Amino acid sequence: MERDFMHLRLVYFSRSTSLMAQNELVSLLKKARMFNDQNDITGLLLYKNQSFVQLLEGPSERVASLFQSICTDERHYAIKTLVKEEAEQRLFPDWSMGFQNLNQSSEAEPLAGYSLFMSDEHSPNLPPNYDKTMELLLFFRARS
C-alpha cells in the first residue's frame, strides 16, 4: 500500500488534573467527536479514576497535531505515549470516538457512543492479525 494511505495509530496514557464529572465527559466527547469527524480521526477513549487511555487513528499529520494539542492541554499531565506506529487499517474505523467511563456502574445510563469494548462478549470483530496496539487495549481491559 502506498505511504499516502498509511494511518498513524497512537495510544497514550494521561492523568486528569481533577476527577471529571459526567457532564464534563459528555462535553469533552461532543467536542472530540465533532473534531474527529471533520479530520478523519477515529479511536477509543477509556477513563477511570482520573486516568485516560486513548487510541487515535487517522492521517499522520492530523493525529500528530491533535496529540500535540492534547500534550499542551492543562487538563492533562503525566502523558506517556504507549504506541506510535503506521498502520494500513484502522482498528476502529467506524468510531469517531468510542468511549467508556470505567468509573460508571453497568446499570448507569451510558453516554451516546458508549463502547462495550471493555466487555469480552462485545469486542469488535478482531482482525486475525491484530497487532500490539490491540494487545495493549485487551491487556488493559483484562485488568480493569
Automatic annotation (TrEMBL):
Q: Which domain of life is it from?
A: Bacteria
Q: Name one GO molecular function term.
A: blue light photoreceptor activity
- Please give the InterPro entries that the UniProt record associates with this protein: Acylphosphatase-like_dom_sf, BLUF_domain
Give every BLUF domain span. Answer: 7-98
**Descriptive protein name:** BLUF domain-containing protein
Native organism: Thalassotalea euphylliae
